[in-house]
Specification:
The chain has helices at about 35-40, 45-70, 105-120, 120-125, and strands at about 5-10, 20, 30-35, 75-85, 90-100, 130-140. It is an alpha+beta fold. Strand 2 and strand 3 (about 30-35) form a beta hairpin.
Length: about 140
């Protein structure tokens, strides 16, 4: 079993406060503010990190499925766009994936891509999000 531990500190009120988020192993420490979350302020925000985690997990899971299909990919590139609405609530995640792989038809790729969307651990953790869309394509 693998575990991971991230850390966040918030100082001050929601409007004027600021914080830092730190990922394990010292790979990332960065600031976040109300403006970086709900406007276009400097720094990151929890939703960006969720999007990065989702894109990374999904890409790895799709790569595993393709490899198990005996068609290992040369490249799987995923962008996750996270929308936060009223509440605040994550209302939508759009996954756009481009896959460079030989020996797989568009239909086979779409089938494996859907299985990856349903099976990746981060997708499962985000199951309460109302809408998670997927757009996958083969690239040459």
């Amino acid at each position: 079993m693998a575990t991971t531990k991230s850390h966040a500190v918030w100082q001050g009120s929601l409007k004027e406060g600021k914080g830092t988020m730190t990922l394990p192993k010292g790979n990332y420490t960065g600031p976040f503010t109300r403006a970086s979350r709900f406007e276009n302020g400097e720094g990151t925000n929890p939703e960006e990190l969720i999007g990065a985690a989702h894109a990374g997990c999904y890409s790895m899971f799709l790569s595993a499925l393709l490899s198990n299909n005996e068609t290992p990919p040369e490249k799987v590139e995923t962008t996750a766009t996270v929308t936060i609405g009223d509440g605040p609530t994550i209302t939508k995640i759009e996954l756009v994936t481009k896959v460079k792989v030989a020996g797989v038809s568009e239909a086979e790729l779409k089938d494996l891509a859907q299985k990856a969307k349903e099976g990746c651990p981060v997708s499962k953790a985000l199951a309460s999000v109302n809408e998670i869309t997927l757009d996958v394509s083969l690239v040459s």
